[in-house]
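Sharing a chain and its predicted structure for anyone who wants a worked example. Both blocks are below, sequence first, tokens second.
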Amino acid sequence: MLNVLLWMAVLNNAVSLSALYRNIPARRNTYYHPSTVSGPCTFPLPYTKEFDIFCQLDYHKTTYICDPAGILSRTEIEMLDHTVRELNMTSCFCSSTCGRGRKKLGIVIVPAASINSIIACDSSLDYAPPTSLPAAAYLFAQLLSRHWSGHCTADLMIIYIRSWNPDRVRKPFIIPVYSNALERLQRYSHPTSVSSREPVLVALQGAIRHAHRLIEAEWTDINTSIPHWAMALACGMLAVVVLSVYTANCITNRLGRHPQVKADQFFLEKEVQWASMAATHPRPRKERWNRRCSGESGFPRYLFITFNVT
């Protein structure tokens, strides 16, 4: 009887677990194979069916992580997503309407790479052939970023390389690539060696937090690049200029009124003089008054008065 009860309990737990995880998709077969896909130029391009299968996006349910070998579990992905939220970024593997106005992020976990495949991908010989693993890791990140540049304009791409072929050397490197909106931080795009005993999740979380500190520090430096005293001095000088222009305008207006007043006074005196002369000569036959003035200044151009008396 006890055995029957135990079997019933086991079956009940199995049914509960199957109902709980029946909506979780299993890991799908991937195109990744270390012997064929170890160079950055062999990675599928974003927005293609091969890319979704290659990066196992359906399984992870996270669009900014490309994990071809399924190194991270779903629980680790959720923990990593909690850290990524601090950056307030969106995925560079989604459409243009995804997270519009925010910086774009991409995380790539490479199970294995090889120096020979990296050299083969650099067909244009833009970079010197790597002679060490750090140089190879840096070149891998640059070539992958360039390979995806037409489809994934990431402002920050974090690439984790776990091992190196052909001897499967377990020497992990993590490389952040700053570009586009974060191009000012490009000097920090250098490979960092990671302990092989350190979990991938911990290494990625550390890289994300470090990038977050750099972005915040750079933003603070931009805001404080202009000292407050310089801004106050500029405002004071601007106020002095405005006041000087206003004062000069007032003085010009006052000086412009005096010529007109003097001209009116001059003509008034001449009229009085003419009236007195006319009174002295009671029968003037002809008098002529020619007075012409300039239209703008108000000063008389010439004044000619003639009296003909019989």
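Comments welcome. DSSP finds eight helices and eight strands in the chain.
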